[in-house]
């Protein structure tokens, strides 16, 4: 595709804005991409042509950022240079901005590979201009219905947009994802044999009660979480595909996940069995890219959680885990993780209803907060903050959390102060914000961690670092 004057104007405008933003300490992704796309709506296509070693796309409802960062850790261990929208700006503007940062003033890319997290609703726009070599699809759950619409619309939109040439890395345990590989030879599946939380019956919210091919009710022999599990349709025979990469002997130990693939043990510094799927998606993609298992193991082992995805901070008062919450299934898994810690709990929940969070917060009533109510004796306090602090407090009251344990505090610093002042011995702290509160909380926690005399690299070592 010939580069026109519009391309050069778009590129140079983006480069100038990026340089200025980076000089002021900002990330420089979204605004440069917005301006560049205004000058040349095809700039993403022009820029993508330089990535001769391939473009990897990561999409799905939950786990995109963690999966992309896990794969990035493996790529770095393999000595690969690559373009990456690490900041998580996964719309067209953010993706374009990341590509511009990796492009010289002469229009050549500084790397030959790109790893791009792509929002589900952005996949059609992205794939009109870019043909990814690999596409990882993590899962599909209801998320921000005011923005995405009904889930079947999102699934269909993604499925119809993926180019036929693209090799698909698919979650075998999610029927909404597994259907993508029907009659395709370029589909590679990953899945889980069984986790300690897997059950033969489930009362959790499920998005895929019916077969995506014929509409018959799906039968499950095992549930992992949500609609993920071992499923079969008695109507048309659609069933969970045989995973090429199967995780076995799964357990948690000292804040890390351990699992085996073909009798080799792997370790990642993440909590929550749902994060196992993110590791498997990255593992499968790395295998397909031709990396050795030893390199993959190192990449998973040295991974540091990013931007509020079970990210740990170490304050003078103790350890805090920060993790994003954005939809019922994801929140349910965070609750499961908190309960599994088996310690007294100090919880801070921040709910906003700005555009990036989703204006409709009725999803809070689909979260199984009743599980927290059942653990009321273990809960020291739940601090409620954000624009919809009162709404989450009301939801928790009806879920059975004692009213005297619910604290309303709209100041973010004040909310954390409440958590610190009421700390019990050996208490596990969790800070659970929606999108627009994530980075403000992250900034406050980083400052508190630095005040305690710890760097992020030292914090990775946990109790050893604090000693």
UniProtKB/TrEMBL annotation:
Entry similarity comment: Belongs to the MurCDEF family. MurT subfamily.
UniProt entry keywords in alphabetical sequence: ATP-binding, Cell shape, Cell wall biogenesis/degradation, Ligase, Metal-binding, Nucleotide-binding, Peptidoglycan synthesis, Zinc
Name of the encoding gene: murT
Pathway(s) the chain acts in: Cell wall biogenesis; peptidoglycan biosynthesis
MF (Gene Ontology): ATP binding; carbon-nitrogen ligase activity on lipid II; tetrahydrofolylpolyglutamate synthase activity; zinc ion binding
Alphabetical GO biological process terms: cell wall organization; peptidoglycan biosynthetic process; regulation of cell shape
Record-linked HAMAP family: Lipid_II_synth_MurT
Keyword DNA-binding appears in the UniProt entry: no
Active site: 360
Subunit-structure text: Forms a heterodimer with GatD.
The keyword Metal-binding is annotated on this UniProt entry: yes
Gene3D superfamilies per record: Mur-like, catalytic domain
Catalytic activity field: beta-D-GlcNAc-(1->4)-Mur2Ac(oyl-L-Ala-gamma-D-Glu-L-Lys-D-Ala-D-Ala)-di-trans,octa-cis-undecaprenyl diphosphate + ATP = beta-D-GlcNAc-(1->4)-Mur2Ac(oyl-L-Ala-gamma-D-O-P-Glu-L-Lys-D-Ala-D-Ala)-di-trans,octa-cis-undecaprenyl diphosphate + ADP; beta-D-GlcNAc-(1->4)-Mur2Ac(oyl-L-Ala-gamma-D-O-P-Glu-L-Lys-D-Ala-D-Ala)-di-trans,octa-cis-undecaprenyl diphosphate + NH4(+) = beta-D-GlcNAc-(1->4)-Mur2Ac(oyl-L-Ala-D-isoglutaminyl-L-Lys-D-Ala-D-Ala)-di-trans,octa-cis-undecaprenyl diphosphate + phosphate + H(+); beta-D-GlcNAc-(1->4)-Mur2Ac(oyl-L-Ala-gamma-D-Glu-L-Lys-D-Ala-D-Ala)-di-trans,octa-cis-undecaprenyl diphosphate + L-glutamine + ATP + H2O = beta-D-GlcNAc-(1->4)-Mur2Ac(oyl-L-Ala-D-isoglutaminyl-L-Lys-D-Ala-D-Ala)-di-trans,octa-cis-undecaprenyl diphosphate + L-glutamate + ADP + phosphate + H(+)
Domain Mur ligase central: 58-286
InterPro entries: Folylpolyglutamate_synth_CS (IPR018109), Lipid_II_synth_MurT (IPR043703), Mur-like_cat_sf (IPR036565), Mur_ligase_cen (IPR013221), MurT_C (IPR013564)
CDD domains: SIMIBI
All residue ranges annotated as the Lipid II isoglutaminyl synthase (glutamine-hydrolyzing) subunit MurT C-terminal domain in the record: 324-437
Name by which UniProt lists this protein: Lipid II isoglutaminyl synthase (glutamine-hydrolyzing) subunit MurT
EC numbers on record: 6.3.5.13
Role noted for this protein: The lipid II isoglutaminyl synthase complex catalyzes the formation of alpha-D-isoglutamine in the cell wall lipid II stem peptide. The MurT subunit catalyzes the ATP-dependent amidation of D-glutamate residue of lipid II, converting it to an isoglutamine residue.
Residues binding Zn(2+): 211, 214, 233, 236
């Amino acid at each position: 595709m010939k580069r026109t004057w519009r391309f050069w104007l778009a590129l140079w405008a983006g480069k100038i804005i990026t340089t200025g933003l980076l000089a002021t300490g900002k990330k420089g992704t979204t605004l440069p991409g917005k301006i560049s796309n205004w000058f040349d709506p095809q700039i993403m296509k022009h820029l993508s042509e330089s990535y001769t070693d391939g473009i990897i796309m990561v999409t799905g409802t939950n786990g995109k950022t963690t999966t992309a960062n896990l794969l990035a850790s493996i790529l770095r261990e393999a000595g690969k240079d690559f373009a990456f929208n690490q900041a998580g700006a996964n719309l067209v503007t953010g993706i374009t901005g990341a590509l511009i940062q990796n492009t010289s003033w002469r229009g050549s890319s500084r790397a030959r590979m790109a790893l791009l997290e792509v929002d589900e609703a952005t996949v059609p726009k992205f794939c009109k201009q870019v043909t990814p070599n690999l596409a990882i699809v993590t899962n599909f759950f209801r998320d921000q219905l005011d923005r995405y619409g009904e889930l079947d619309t999102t699934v269909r939109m993604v499925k119809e947009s993926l180019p036929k040439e693209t090799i698909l890395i698919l979650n075998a345990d999610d029927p909404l994802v597994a259907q993508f590989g029907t009659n395709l030879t370029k589909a590679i599946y990953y899945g889980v044999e069984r986790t300690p939380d897997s059950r033969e019956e489930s009362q959790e919210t499920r998005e895929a009660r019916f077969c995506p091919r014929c509409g018959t009710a799906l039968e499950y022999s095992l549930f992992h979480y949500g609609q993920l599990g071992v499923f079969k349709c008695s109507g048309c025979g659609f069933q969970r595909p045989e995973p090429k990469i199967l995780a076995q002997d799964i357990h948690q130990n000292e804040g890390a996940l351990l699992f085996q693939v073909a009798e080799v043990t792997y370790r990642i510094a993440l909590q929550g069995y749902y994060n196992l799927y993110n590791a498997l998606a990255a593992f499968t993609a790395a295998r397909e890219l031709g990396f050795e298992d030893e390199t993959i193991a190192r990449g998973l082992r040295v991974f540091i959680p990013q931007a509020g995805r079970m990210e740990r901070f170490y304050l003078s008062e103790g350890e805090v885990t920060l993790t994003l919450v954005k939809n019922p299934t994801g929140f349910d898994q965070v609750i499961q993780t908190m309960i599994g810690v088996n310690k007294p709990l100090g919880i801070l929940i921040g709910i906003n209803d700005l555009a990036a969070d989703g204006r409709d917060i009725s999803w809070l009533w689909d979260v199984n907060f009743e599980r927290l109510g059942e653990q009321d004796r273990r809960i020291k306090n739940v601090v409620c903050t954000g624009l919809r602090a009162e709404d989450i407090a009301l939801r928790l009251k009806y879920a059975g959390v004692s009213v005297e344990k619910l604290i309303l505090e709209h100041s973010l610093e004040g909310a954390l102060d409440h958590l610190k002042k009421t700390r019990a011995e050996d208490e596990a702290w969790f800070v659970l914000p929606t999108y627009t509160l994530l980075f403000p909380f992250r900034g406050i926690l980083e400052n508190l961690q630095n005040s305690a005399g710890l760097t992020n690299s030292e914090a990775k070592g946990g109790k050893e670092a604090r000693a």
